[in-house]
Amino acid sequence: MFAEHLKKIVDNVDGGIAAIVMGLDGIPVETYVRQNDKIDVATIAMEFSFILGQVRKAGDSLAVGSLEELTVKAQRLVLICRMLTPQYFVAVVVTAEANSGKARFLARMAGPQLAAQL
Which of 2, 55, 94, 118 could bond 30 through an S-S bridge, CB–CB 3.0 to 4.6 Å? Predict the structure, then answer.
């Protein structure tokens, strides 16, 4: 079931590369990568899972509320991480030229269905 939602997110964004559901411990639950894209999304998400954990802790200690989303824009890609539960997130990878707003929207819409499956 995770794969269907991840595929829908990636395939409905021009420039969509991959999506993954992962725990903050860096262990992937499910991954979808477009066939013609050769990106190690698990390694990318694993590296950023530590940062998500740190941002979440900072938000808690500053009493600004829980972390909902973190977007990282690099020269070659954009990584959108959206929390599903306090311990799991979905990460969507798109090209730098892609419509990252649409990717954010699709990740947000898929969030409740993904969270229900955890």
Answer: 2
The percentage of the chain sitting over the pLDDT mark of 90, rounded to a whole number, equals 61
Counted domains in the chain: 1
Q: Are 104 and 77 in contact (CB under 8 A)?
A: no
Q: Which two structure tokens, joined as six digits, stand for 109?
A: 């819409």
Residue position matching structure tokens 């998400």:
45
Q: Given a cut of 70, is residue 37 above it in pLDDT?
A: no
**What pLDDT score does 31 carry?**
92
Q: Which residue has the tokens 């600004």?
A: 64
Q: Are 82 and 89 in contact (CB under 8 A)?
A: yes
- What CATH number is given to the structural domain containing 9? 3.30.450.30
pTM of the model: 0.89
